[in-house]
Amino acid sequence: MRISARADYAVRAALQLAASRDDGPLKAEAIADAQDIPHKFLEGILNDMRRGGLVLSQRGGNGGYRLAKSPESISIADVIRVVDGPLVSVRGVRPPDLSYTGPAQSLLPLWIALRSNVREILEGVSLADVASAELPAGVSALTDSPGAWTNP
Question: What sign for the dihedral angle of Cα 28, 29, 35, 37?
């Protein structure tokens, strides 16, 4: 699985908004500076997040962006889907829409299992979990293996 720069930036921007929730709306420039995200790129991401119902924008001198819902109710999967679409696709196609024959027939259940595990992790972690550095136990357990931190 590949996490795009767009998805990474979107999650980081959402986390910045979650951490600043009580401070009022944040300007895009402030989010960009705090997370080292190119400002123009972030503007497009924030617009997608607004259209997707994750953030609200407010105009004026005290304007900016804020989360549309509580950080506890927004999963990391929600953010990624709004800016990048489905979490797992094969050649741009969702796994249930694929079919294979012969020795490749077992690929479909493999892709479905992959999608299921990705969903379980990303849908099970909220912005609040990450912002508070309190990941769910199951997610933290996956990082306990030394092999999780190495690139084969």
Answer: positive
Closest by CA to 83, choosing from 124, 121, 112, 54, is 54
Residue 81 burial (CB count, 10 A): 18
Query: What letter represents residue 27's amino acid?
Result: K
**Helix, strand, or coil here: 78?**
helix
Contact criterion met (CB below 8 Å) for 10 and 49: yes
45 touches 10 (CB < 8 A): yes
The whole model's pTM is what? Answer: 0.91
- Do 55 and 46 meet the contact criterion of CB atoms below 8 Å apart? yes
pLDDT digits (tens, 9 = 90+) for 82-120: 999 999 989 888 888 999 999 999 999 999 999 999 999
The angle, 0 to 180 degrees and rounded to 10, between the axes of the packed helices 76-84 and 107-123 is 120
Q: What is the pLDDT of residues 14-24, one digit of tens each?
A: 999 999 988 88
* Phi, psi for 109 (deg, rounded to 5): -60, -30
In the numeric block, which tokens belong to residue 16?
């910045």
Across residues 131-150, what is the average pLDDT?
92
pLDDT at 11: 98
Question: To which residue do tokens 């909220």 refer?
Answer: 126
